[in-house]
User: Fold this.
Amino acid sequence: MVCFFSRADGLIRCEVRPAGNGDGYELLIDRPDAAVQVERFNGAEALNRRWMDVEGYLISQGWRGPAPRQHLKYLS
Assistant:
């Protein structure tokens, strides 16, 4: 799953994907300053808790979203 958050100063891309080794999940956060953060989780429950924290934080900081890739043009 890939979704985006936007505001005047940029775009944040978030991706949830299976871990590269096939065991668990990864949450990738790609920020406007080119910093990429990857967090790994053993189970879906921990990943979901973290995603809810990230989403809440971004919204509280004025980011709009999340929006899937095909709806990106409507965030501007």
Q: What stands out?
A: Residues 3 and 70 are 9 Å apart (CA to CA).
